Amino acid sequence: MDWEIVVFWALLVYHNILLDHVEYPFCVSCAICILSMMLIDLPPEILVRIFLFLPLPGLLACQGVNHYLSNVISSSIELQYALHCKSATQLDTDNPQCLLSFKERLTLLLAKEARWKELNQRFHSTANISFLTSGIYDLSGGVYLLGDVSRRTLHYTYLPNDSDQKLVWKSLSTDHLIIDMGLCVHEHDLIAIVTT
């Protein structure tokens, strides 16, 4: 189902229009005419909830319909964050681990995008490795993991968020030979180790 149809049906239900009188499939241009008349009647909070489901082209199209919808979109921090996430192709919009407000997330995202435009990082850090590595490695959720040549120990560190933080290596050991491993700390707090 196209996003225009989803929004159209949501508006019909909101306005208690009898769905029996609407023929399906219907002309999309007719739907847009009805949408433009009904959208401005909705409270801004409902519009924000509807607009959050739109893909980037749909959200930009709604922003260009009239001044009212443009103001609703530009004054909603949540929509601005979603808009910038979609344009930056950042999929991390629903991270349950993030405790930041949408305003803080938007500020960080805009700063990150500005740094990428100029390839200007905030700081750099060097990791001193006091063991011989095996070629087993992974990076996920801000955790960098390296295997050592014994292939029985995995060393890991949390990557710093600012220049004041130092890298501290910790380790996980097993009695078995490690063939490979997978890391998904940020999403599931999971480390899977394939052994012999």
Describe the fold and architecture.
With 196 residues, the protein is α+β, with helices and mostly antiparallel strands. It folds into 2 domains: 3-118, Monooxygenase; 133-195, no CATH class. It is built from 8 helices and 6 strands, in the order H-H-H-H-H-H-H-E-E-E-E-E-H-E. The chain has helices at 3-14, 28-39, 44-51, 56-63, 67-75, 77-87, 102-118, 185-188, and strands spanning 133-140, 143-148, 153-158, 170-173, 178-184, 190-195. Strands 1-2-3-4 form a 4-stranded antiparallel sheet, with no helix packed on it. Strands 5-6 form a two-stranded antiparallel ribbon. The longest helix is centred in the middle third of the chain and has 17 residues, at 102-118. The chain is elongated. The model is unreliable at 16-20 (pLDDT under 50).
- pLDDT averaged residue by residue: 78
**Any low-confidence stretches, pLDDT <50, length ≥5?**
16-20
Question: Helical region count?
Answer: 8
Number of strands: 6
SSE pattern: HHHHHHHEEEEEHE
Number of domains: 2
Beta-strand residue fraction: 15-25%
Strand order of the largest sheet: 1-2-3-4
What's the main sheet like? 4 strands, antiparallel
What Rg, in angstroms, do the CA atoms define?
Answer: 24 Å
How far the N terminus sits from the C terminus, by CA atoms, comes to 48 Å
CATH architecture of the largest domain: Up-down Bundle
Which fold does the CATH topology of the largest domain refer to? Monooxygenase
* Helix percentage: 40-55%
Shape: elongated
